[in-house]
Amino acid sequence: MVRKYLVGIALLTVIAISGCSAANKETTAEANTSKAPAAETAADTEAASDVLEIEFWHALESQYQETLNRVVGEFNDSHDSIVIKPMYIGNYTALNEAIVSANAANTNLPGVAMANIPYVTAYGAGGLCEDLGPYIQRDGFEIDDFGEGLIQAAKYEDVQVALPFLVSTEVVYYNRDLLNELGLQIPKTWDEIPSFLEKASDISADGKTNRYGMVFPGWITWYYEPFFINNGVQLVTAEGKTDLASEHSVKLVSDLKDWTKKGYSYLATGEDAASVMRQNFIDGKALSVIYTSSLYDTIVDSCNFDVGMDWLPGGKTKEQVLGGNVLFLPAKNDQKVKDASWEFLSYLMSKDVNMIWASESGYLPTRKSVQETDEGKAFLAQKPEFQIIFDNLDIITPGIQRTDWSQVSTTWRNWMDEIIQEDLDVETALKEMEVEINEILSGS
Questions:
Q1: Among candidate residues 199, 249, 175, 271, the one with its CA nearest the CA of residue 419
Q2: Does the predicted TM-score (pTM) go above 0.70?
């Protein structure tokens, strides 16, 4: 669910010349051989040639570099025969293009690679990922310690082709000071939202909104998918069609449109939608916003009031959708490389490393058992708001896993924006949208 960007020629050049991801570590003999006996130099060269250099391709930006370098450094210090080289390729789209290109060329593949969760299905279908099942079984890796939704998000046709790494889910951030002052609580269901918005919003006599009760992101559908899923809408039915024009869907979209007209809320779309929404919350112009749990630290550090975090208002169910990334092993590497790469991948999945990332990045702890560790207890003492996520790990779902979902999602997003911003008739517009989406789902 990411926007597509063009990848510059310079990036492709860097990828093309980056070198083999698992090349044997090269050594250069010193010009002055009198400093070491020939036999000793030969032995050193032979030992160095046994060291595997494994590239780890990722999309982690500069704010994560300190943590990444420390985690990788600790692995390298504890392994004599493996050296990990982390390589920032670009955003998820650029990383995807680099991986697909290297796989097609069957050269310069990394040993371990990161991928945004929506790419898992396409990678699995294309045979790009190694089946991790044999490694998990051989080493007794505790796969069941992950939430069920996390496990499923990294599978393709019941094959474990990846493992969840830095993941997040949707949450409600709210101004706890103001919420308490108004004597309100974050609504638990969609049907409770209208009453909440009426009291939480501040509308002046001339109809101008001074404070929104709640803001809904609209730049990707990931943020509002749970509202539809939990209120009786089947995004894709068993017959491979969409239910997005059903009466349940009409009600949800009509509500959003009505709240926007009244000034209680808005669907955040367009250029800089995320930064504008964040700033509205920071400035007290929105009592609450729907956003990603991965930015908890950023939100808290930016606000001069007490920030609360809660689960999204649900319906008959209260499922949410997983966001973030997974790690996988490219299948075309030789077995020696894949074994060494698995060693690093499983290290990154360990409880200790998982808690380092959770504490320093804002991403979720992925292992259920970390709650019982000293590190997990310290994490919750520092960030008690995350208890709500710990309590619901098993109902964070992988979302729709189809190779055409990105196109469907884009179509849905554009129609939602148009319905609300251009005041289209909801039922008529959704029926037109349904036809368009069903054509995508049918492959026509």
A1: 249
A2: yes
